[in-house]
Amino acid sequence: MNNIKEPILSVSNLLDIRTLPSEDISILLETAQSFKEILRRPNKKVPALRDVCIANLFFENSTRTRISFELAEKRLSADTVNFSTSGSSIKKGETLLDTVNNILAMKVDMIVIRHEQNGAPHFLSQHIDVPIINAGDGTHEHPTQGLLDAFSLKEKFGYLEGLKVAIIGDILHSRVARSNIYLLKKMGAEITVCGPPTLIPNHIQDLGVQVSYNLLETLKWCDAANFLRIQLERQNIKYVPTLREYSYLYGLDAQKYKSLLKNIVILHPGPINRGVELSSDMADSENAIILNQVENGVAMRMAVLYLLGQKIK
Fold it and tell me: Virtual CA dihedral for 146, 148, 154, 159, nearest 10 degrees?
Protein backbone atom coordinates (compact mmCIF):
# COMPACT_ATOMS: atom_id res chain seq x y z
CA MET A 1 0.00 0.00 0.00
CA ASN A 2 1.40 3.38 -0.98
CA ASN A 3 3.11 5.42 1.74
CA ILE A 4 2.30 2.84 4.43
CA LYS A 5 5.15 1.11 6.21
CA GLU A 6 4.88 -2.54 7.09
CA PRO A 7 5.34 -2.58 10.89
CA ILE A 8 4.26 -5.60 12.92
CA LEU A 9 2.47 -5.51 16.26
CA SER A 10 3.59 -7.88 18.99
CA VAL A 11 -0.05 -8.65 19.91
CA SER A 12 -2.74 -10.54 17.99
CA ASN A 13 -5.66 -8.77 19.71
CA LEU A 14 -6.31 -5.28 21.05
CA LEU A 15 -7.88 -6.09 24.41
CA ASP A 16 -6.58 -3.27 26.59
CA ILE A 17 -3.89 -0.63 26.93
CA ARG A 18 -2.60 -1.88 30.29
CA THR A 19 -0.80 -4.84 28.68
CA LEU A 20 -0.03 -3.20 25.32
CA PRO A 21 3.72 -2.58 24.90
CA SER A 22 4.79 1.02 24.37
CA GLU A 23 6.49 -0.06 21.14
CA ASP A 24 3.11 -1.18 19.78
CA ILE A 25 1.58 2.14 20.83
CA SER A 26 4.25 4.00 18.87
CA ILE A 27 3.59 1.84 15.80
CA LEU A 28 -0.15 2.53 16.04
CA LEU A 29 0.38 6.29 16.39
CA GLU A 30 2.67 6.37 13.35
CA THR A 31 0.34 4.21 11.25
CA ALA A 32 -2.68 6.33 12.18
CA GLN A 33 -0.82 9.41 10.91
CA SER A 34 -0.34 7.69 7.56
CA PHE A 35 -4.01 6.82 7.37
CA LYS A 36 -5.09 10.33 8.30
CA GLU A 37 -3.16 11.59 5.29
CA ILE A 38 -5.03 9.05 3.15
CA LEU A 39 -8.38 10.15 4.59
CA ARG A 40 -7.73 13.69 3.41
CA ARG A 41 -7.31 12.60 -0.21
CA PRO A 42 -10.23 12.75 -2.66
CA ASN A 43 -10.10 8.94 -2.90
CA LYS A 44 -10.21 7.83 0.74
CA LYS A 45 -10.47 4.10 0.08
CA VAL A 46 -7.57 1.64 0.02
CA PRO A 47 -7.64 -2.13 -0.66
CA ALA A 48 -5.66 -3.04 2.47
CA LEU A 49 -8.28 -5.45 3.89
CA ARG A 50 -10.04 -6.52 0.72
CA ASP A 51 -11.68 -9.97 1.19
CA VAL A 52 -11.41 -9.68 4.99
CA CYS A 53 -14.78 -9.94 6.79
CA ILE A 54 -15.19 -8.08 10.10
CA ALA A 55 -18.11 -8.50 12.51
CA ASN A 56 -19.04 -5.53 14.69
CA LEU A 57 -20.69 -6.96 17.80
CA PHE A 58 -22.19 -4.12 19.82
CA PHE A 59 -23.96 -5.37 22.93
CA GLU A 60 -24.11 -1.78 24.20
CA ASN A 61 -25.44 1.39 22.60
CA SER A 62 -22.94 3.45 20.62
CA THR A 63 -22.91 6.20 18.01
CA ARG A 64 -19.37 7.53 17.48
CA THR A 65 -17.46 4.32 18.14
CA ARG A 66 -19.70 2.13 16.01
CA ILE A 67 -19.83 4.50 13.04
CA SER A 68 -16.09 5.14 13.35
CA PHE A 69 -15.30 1.42 13.16
CA GLU A 70 -17.70 0.90 10.26
CA LEU A 71 -16.17 3.78 8.31
CA ALA A 72 -12.65 2.57 9.06
CA GLU A 73 -13.55 -0.90 7.77
CA LYS A 74 -15.12 0.47 4.61
CA ARG A 75 -12.12 2.75 3.95
CA LEU A 76 -9.94 -0.37 4.14
CA SER A 77 -12.28 -2.23 1.69
CA ALA A 78 -13.26 -4.87 4.26
CA ASP A 79 -16.61 -6.63 4.26
CA THR A 80 -18.61 -5.87 7.39
CA VAL A 81 -21.37 -7.53 9.39
CA ASN A 82 -23.14 -5.52 12.10
CA PHE A 83 -24.74 -7.15 15.13
CA SER A 84 -26.86 -5.72 17.91
CA THR A 85 -28.66 -7.51 20.74
CA SER A 86 -32.13 -6.28 19.77
CA GLY A 87 -33.81 -9.09 17.86
CA SER A 88 -30.86 -11.45 18.34
CA SER A 89 -30.70 -14.93 19.87
CA ILE A 90 -29.08 -13.38 22.94
CA LYS A 91 -32.62 -12.43 23.92
CA LYS A 92 -33.52 -16.14 23.75
CA GLY A 93 -30.81 -17.12 26.19
CA GLU A 94 -27.90 -17.92 23.84
CA THR A 95 -24.49 -17.44 25.43
CA LEU A 96 -21.96 -14.89 24.22
CA LEU A 97 -19.54 -17.63 23.14
CA ASP A 98 -22.21 -19.54 21.21
CA THR A 99 -23.28 -16.35 19.45
CA VAL A 100 -19.71 -15.53 18.43
CA ASN A 101 -18.90 -19.08 17.35
CA ASN A 102 -21.98 -19.14 15.12
CA ILE A 103 -20.91 -15.86 13.53
CA LEU A 104 -17.37 -17.20 13.00
CA ALA A 105 -18.81 -20.31 11.35
CA MET A 106 -19.99 -17.98 8.58
CA LYS A 107 -16.29 -17.28 7.81
CA VAL A 108 -15.80 -14.01 9.67
CA ASP A 109 -12.11 -13.08 10.04
CA MET A 110 -12.09 -10.45 12.81
CA ILE A 111 -14.29 -9.37 15.72
CA VAL A 112 -14.92 -5.86 17.07
CA ILE A 113 -16.86 -6.09 20.32
CA ARG A 114 -18.42 -3.65 22.77
CA HIS A 115 -19.94 -5.26 25.85
CA GLU A 116 -21.37 -4.07 29.15
CA GLN A 117 -19.44 -6.71 31.10
CA ASN A 118 -15.85 -6.12 32.14
CA GLY A 119 -13.53 -8.65 30.53
CA ALA A 120 -15.88 -9.91 27.80
CA PRO A 121 -13.27 -9.43 25.01
CA HIS A 122 -10.62 -11.13 27.17
CA PHE A 123 -12.96 -14.08 27.75
CA LEU A 124 -13.56 -14.45 24.01
CA SER A 125 -9.83 -14.28 23.27
CA GLN A 126 -9.34 -17.45 25.33
CA HIS A 127 -11.84 -19.39 23.22
CA ILE A 128 -11.59 -18.14 19.63
CA ASP A 129 -8.61 -17.73 17.32
CA VAL A 130 -9.43 -14.63 15.25
CA PRO A 131 -8.24 -11.10 16.11
CA ILE A 132 -10.46 -9.34 18.66
CA ILE A 133 -10.67 -5.58 19.12
CA ASN A 134 -12.15 -4.26 22.33
CA ALA A 135 -14.51 -1.37 21.53
CA GLY A 136 -15.25 -0.85 25.23
CA ASP A 137 -15.99 -3.34 28.00
CA GLY A 138 -18.00 -2.23 31.01
CA THR A 139 -16.05 0.18 33.19
CA HIS A 140 -12.77 -1.58 32.36
CA GLU A 141 -11.13 -0.09 29.24
CA HIS A 142 -11.75 1.55 25.87
CA PRO A 143 -8.38 1.07 24.14
CA THR A 144 -9.11 2.69 20.76
CA GLN A 145 -10.44 5.80 22.52
CA GLY A 146 -7.24 6.01 24.53
CA LEU A 147 -5.20 5.63 21.36
CA LEU A 148 -7.11 8.29 19.42
CA ASP A 149 -6.92 10.70 22.35
CA ALA A 150 -3.15 10.24 22.52
CA PHE A 151 -2.93 10.63 18.74
CA SER A 152 -4.92 13.88 18.95
CA LEU A 153 -2.68 15.22 21.72
CA LYS A 154 0.51 14.31 19.89
CA GLU A 155 -0.83 15.91 16.72
CA LYS A 156 -1.63 19.11 18.64
CA PHE A 157 1.53 19.40 20.75
CA GLY A 158 4.04 17.36 18.76
CA TYR A 159 5.00 15.25 21.78
CA LEU A 160 3.57 13.23 24.68
CA GLU A 161 6.56 12.85 26.99
CA GLY A 162 6.33 15.49 29.71
CA LEU A 163 2.88 16.68 28.60
CA LYS A 164 0.63 17.62 31.54
CA VAL A 165 -2.84 16.14 31.03
CA ALA A 166 -5.82 16.46 33.35
CA ILE A 167 -8.68 13.95 33.23
CA ILE A 168 -11.74 15.51 34.79
CA GLY A 169 -15.12 14.11 35.80
CA ASP A 170 -16.49 10.64 36.48
CA ILE A 171 -13.22 8.73 36.81
CA LEU A 172 -14.85 5.96 38.84
CA HIS A 173 -17.05 4.64 36.02
CA SER A 174 -14.91 5.66 33.05
CA ARG A 175 -13.18 3.08 30.87
CA VAL A 176 -11.87 6.02 28.82
CA ALA A 177 -10.05 7.39 31.87
CA ARG A 178 -8.35 4.06 32.51
CA SER A 179 -7.15 3.61 28.94
CA ASN A 180 -5.92 7.22 28.84
CA ILE A 181 -4.04 6.84 32.11
CA TYR A 182 -2.33 3.60 31.07
CA LEU A 183 -1.37 4.91 27.64
CA LEU A 184 -0.24 8.42 28.53
CA LYS A 185 1.82 7.19 31.48
CA LYS A 186 3.57 4.68 29.21
CA MET A 187 4.40 7.49 26.80
CA GLY A 188 5.85 9.72 29.53
CA ALA A 189 3.00 12.17 30.16
CA GLU A 190 2.07 13.52 33.61
CA ILE A 191 -1.53 12.87 34.69
CA THR A 192 -3.81 14.49 37.24
CA VAL A 193 -7.35 13.19 37.75
CA CYS A 194 -9.88 15.65 39.09
CA GLY A 195 -13.46 15.31 40.25
CA PRO A 196 -15.65 14.98 43.32
CA PRO A 197 -14.25 12.53 45.94
CA THR A 198 -17.19 10.19 45.32
CA LEU A 199 -16.17 9.79 41.66
CA ILE A 200 -12.44 9.21 42.22
CA PRO A 201 -11.55 5.50 42.68
CA ASN A 202 -9.73 4.43 45.81
CA HIS A 203 -5.99 3.85 45.33
CA ILE A 204 -5.92 5.40 41.86
CA GLN A 205 -2.62 7.00 42.88
CA ASP A 206 -1.17 3.49 42.50
CA LEU A 207 -1.40 4.07 38.73
CA GLY A 208 1.08 6.93 39.03
CA VAL A 209 -1.39 9.80 38.81
CA GLN A 210 -1.99 12.82 41.01
CA VAL A 211 -5.45 13.42 42.49
CA SER A 212 -7.12 16.81 42.79
CA TYR A 213 -10.56 17.90 43.91
CA ASN A 214 -10.10 21.51 42.77
CA LEU A 215 -10.93 22.20 39.13
CA LEU A 216 -9.26 25.60 38.73
CA GLU A 217 -6.01 24.49 40.35
CA THR A 218 -5.94 21.46 38.04
CA LEU A 219 -6.60 23.54 34.93
CA LYS A 220 -3.87 26.02 35.85
CA TRP A 221 -1.45 23.07 36.12
CA CYS A 222 -2.27 21.22 32.89
CA ASP A 223 -1.55 21.67 29.18
CA ALA A 224 -4.65 19.73 28.12
CA ALA A 225 -7.85 18.71 29.88
CA ASN A 226 -9.98 15.71 28.94
CA PHE A 227 -13.50 16.21 30.30
CA LEU A 228 -15.64 13.14 30.96
CA ARG A 229 -19.38 13.02 31.40
CA ILE A 230 -21.09 11.65 34.49
CA GLN A 231 -22.19 8.16 33.47
CA LEU A 232 -25.62 8.08 35.04
CA GLU A 233 -26.45 4.83 33.21
CA ARG A 234 -23.74 3.03 35.22
CA GLN A 235 -24.79 4.42 38.60
CA ASN A 236 -27.35 2.81 40.86
CA ILE A 237 -26.85 5.46 43.55
CA LYS A 238 -26.32 9.23 43.36
CA TYR A 239 -22.66 10.24 43.53
CA VAL A 240 -23.31 13.98 43.35
CA PRO A 241 -26.21 15.94 44.90
CA THR A 242 -27.33 17.54 41.61
CA LEU A 243 -25.95 18.02 38.10
CA ARG A 244 -26.24 21.78 38.67
CA GLU A 245 -23.91 21.58 41.68
CA TYR A 246 -21.53 19.30 39.78
CA SER A 247 -21.40 21.78 36.89
CA TYR A 248 -20.73 24.67 39.27
CA LEU A 249 -17.75 22.87 40.82
CA TYR A 250 -16.36 20.78 37.94
CA GLY A 251 -17.84 22.12 34.71
CA LEU A 252 -15.92 24.51 32.46
CA ASP A 253 -17.42 27.70 31.08
CA ALA A 254 -15.94 30.82 29.48
CA GLN A 255 -15.69 32.71 32.77
CA LYS A 256 -13.62 29.99 34.43
CA TYR A 257 -11.49 29.61 31.32
CA LYS A 258 -10.62 33.31 31.21
CA SER A 259 -9.60 33.21 34.86
CA LEU A 260 -6.83 30.73 34.00
CA LEU A 261 -4.86 33.43 32.16
CA LYS A 262 -3.48 30.72 29.86
CA ASN A 263 -4.64 28.55 26.97
CA ILE A 264 -5.25 24.85 27.43
CA VAL A 265 -6.46 22.26 24.95
CA ILE A 266 -9.91 20.79 25.65
CA LEU A 267 -10.84 17.20 24.83
CA HIS A 268 -14.01 15.17 25.35
CA PRO A 269 -14.72 11.57 24.28
CA GLY A 270 -18.43 12.30 23.82
CA PRO A 271 -21.31 12.41 24.11
CA ILE A 272 -21.13 15.88 25.65
CA ASN A 273 -23.67 16.90 28.26
CA ARG A 274 -23.66 20.57 27.30
CA GLY A 275 -24.03 22.81 30.30
CA VAL A 276 -22.77 20.11 32.67
CA GLU A 277 -19.12 19.26 32.02
CA LEU A 278 -18.68 21.86 29.29
CA SER A 279 -20.66 24.94 28.33
CA SER A 280 -21.48 25.24 24.63
CA ASP A 281 -19.05 28.13 24.15
CA MET A 282 -16.24 25.94 25.54
CA ALA A 283 -17.23 22.83 23.57
CA ASP A 284 -17.28 24.86 20.35
CA SER A 285 -14.26 27.05 21.10
CA GLU A 286 -11.05 27.16 19.08
CA ASN A 287 -9.25 25.55 22.03
CA ALA A 288 -11.43 22.43 21.84
CA ILE A 289 -10.24 19.58 19.59
CA ILE A 290 -13.34 17.43 20.14
CA LEU A 291 -14.32 17.09 16.48
CA ASN A 292 -10.69 16.47 15.62
CA GLN A 293 -10.81 13.55 18.06
CA VAL A 294 -13.74 12.16 16.09
CA GLU A 295 -11.86 12.52 12.80
CA ASN A 296 -8.77 10.94 14.30
CA GLY A 297 -10.87 8.06 15.57
CA VAL A 298 -11.38 6.79 12.03
CA ALA A 299 -7.65 7.02 11.24
CA MET A 300 -6.68 5.26 14.48
CA ARG A 301 -9.21 2.49 14.02
CA MET A 302 -8.00 2.03 10.46
CA ALA A 303 -4.50 1.60 11.90
CA VAL A 304 -5.67 -0.98 14.45
CA LEU A 305 -7.69 -2.96 11.89
CA TYR A 306 -4.94 -2.83 9.30
CA LEU A 307 -2.15 -3.95 11.62
CA LEU A 308 -4.15 -6.77 13.19
CA GLY A 309 -5.49 -7.71 9.78
CA GLN A 310 -1.98 -8.47 8.57
CA LYS A 311 -1.92 -11.40 11.00
CA ILE A 312 -4.76 -13.20 9.20
CA LYS A 313 -3.70 -12.67 5.60
Answer: 30
d(CA 25, CA 114): 21
Q: Which CATH superfamily is domain 22-141+297-309 in?
A: Aspartate/ornithine carbamoyltransferase (3.40.50.1370)
Judge whether 22-141+297-309 and 143-293 match in fold.
Answer: yes
110 φ, ψ (degrees, to nearest 5)? -155, 150
Topology annotation, domain 143-293: Rossmann fold (3.40.50)
Residues in the chain where the model's pLDDT stays below 70: 1-5, 86-92, 232-237, 313
Give the model confidence (pLDDT) of 249-278 as tens digits: 999 999 999 999 999 999 999 999 999 999
Domain boundaries, the chain: 22-141+297-309, 143-293
Region of 162 on the Ramachandran plot (φ > 0 left; ψ -120 to 50 alpha; else beta) = left
Phi, psi of 151 (to 5 degrees): -60, -45
- Give tens-digit pLDDT for 194-241: 999 999 999 999 999 999 999 999 999 999 999 999 876 554 557 888
Q: pTM here?
A: 0.94
Is beta strand 164-168 parallel, antiparallel or unpaired with respect to 190-194?
A: parallel
Looking at beta carbons, which pairs linking 239-246 to residues 24 or more positions away fall under 8 Å? Answer: 239/170, 239/172, 239/196, 239/198, 239/199, 240/196, 240/198, 240/199, 243/273, 243/276, 246/196, 246/276
